[in-house]
From TrEMBL:
It comes from the Bacteria. CDD domains: ABC_Mj1267_LivG_branched (cd03219). Coiled coil: none annotated. GO terms for molecular function: ATP binding. Residues 4-252 form the ABC transporter domain. This is ABC transporter ATP-binding protein. It comes from Desulfofustis limnaeus. The keyword DNA-binding does not apply. InterPro entries: AAA+_ATPase, ABC_AA/LPS_Transport, ABC_transporter-like_ATP-bd, BCA_ABC_TP_C, P-loop_NTPase. Keywords: ATP-binding, Nucleotide-binding, Transport.
Length: 264
């Protein structure tokens, strides 16, 4: 059964169709990318999926339940976590505190327990901190638990965002341009991290990415958007040789280069 099924999804802003009748599905455990030129509607798709926008038409079914009309916090609690195109951390909080924020969707304490610092609260807090430190190590951040988030180098802030998303224990992870601003070595390392997240934690991944080396290396399936419409979908090899995708987005030179690199 598909974990996520999107059918005939449409989102307009005034007269502009940012998403126009898009249909695709994502199987449990799959890594899928959404690519396409600037303004194609990729981020709007994420914002519609996570309840920031309500679609004008269409259905979004996650884990057998409709998400249309549900609030972002309800959607997060149902198992969808995301990172953003522009990193959104709590800049003045520590690394561990930022990860703890990601866990709040599952905290069970009520305000009385918290205020009185009852044993249940203390136990849950200690357990949450232990889990936060574990996740910090998992994403490759070591010895920086007490550092203020804003003082971390850019690549480490990206990893921290991923740790915070994982802290919510998601079934589906949405990554919006996770390799943006990274050098080739950093993007290669982060690609490995995504594969580990899927292989070791069984988390399904949907990513928007402009770095075609990352996309072609990691994706099992690719969906291509242009002017709000899905213009193609398929395996990396199918997408690299799709004439419409080459014309709308990849360009002939880039497609040939990618073909040579991946067949080398
Ligand atoms: N809140 C909004 N109000 C009005 N128009 C919007 C809004 N959000 C997005 N748009 C428009 O919808 C279209 C799709 O934008 P979107 O950001 O989803 O594209 P994208 O594929 O993510 O682009 P990029 O690769 O540059 O991030 C664009 O024309 C954009 O200007």
């Amino acid at each position: 059964m598909a974990l996520l099924e999107i059918s005939n999804l449409t989102k307009t802003f005034g007269g502009l169709k940012a998403i126009s009748g898009v249909t695709f599905s994502l199987a449990q455990g799959q890594i899928m990318s959404i690519i396409g030129p600037n303004g194609a509607g990729k981020t709007t798709l994420f914002n519609t999926l996570t309840g920031i926008y309500r679609p004008n038409k269409g259905a979004i079914v996650f884990n057998g339940k409709s998400l249309v009309g549900r609030r972002p916090d309800q959607i997060a609690a149902s198992g969808i976590a995301r990172t953003f195109q522009n990193i959104r951390l709590f800049p003045d909080m520590s690394v561990v505190e930022n990860i703890l924020v990601g866990m709040h969707v599952h905290f069970r304490q009520n305000p009385i327990q918290t205020l009185l610092r009852l044993p249940t609260f203390m136990r849950e807090e200690a357990e949450a901190e232990r889990k936060a430190v574990e996740l910090m190590h998992y994403v490759g951040l070591n010895g920086v638990g007490n550092e203020t988030a804003k003082n971390l180098p850019y690549g480490m802030q990206r990893r921290l965002e991923i740790a915070r998303a994982l802290a919510a224990d998601p079934k589906l992870l949405l990554l919006d341009e996770p390799a943006a601003g990274m050098n080739p070595q950093e993007s290669e390392e982060i690609t490995k991290l995504f594969r580990n997240i899927r292989d070791q934690k069984g988390i399904t991944i949907l990513l928007i990415e402009h770095d075609m080396r990352v996309v072609m290396k990691i994706s099992e399936h690719i969906c291509v958007m242009d002017y709000g419409e899905k213009i193609a979908e398929g395996s990396p090899a199918e997408i690299r040789s799709n004439t419409r995708v080459i014309e709308a987005y990849l360009g002939r030179g880039a497609a040939e280069e990618l073909h040579l690199e991946t067949s080398a």
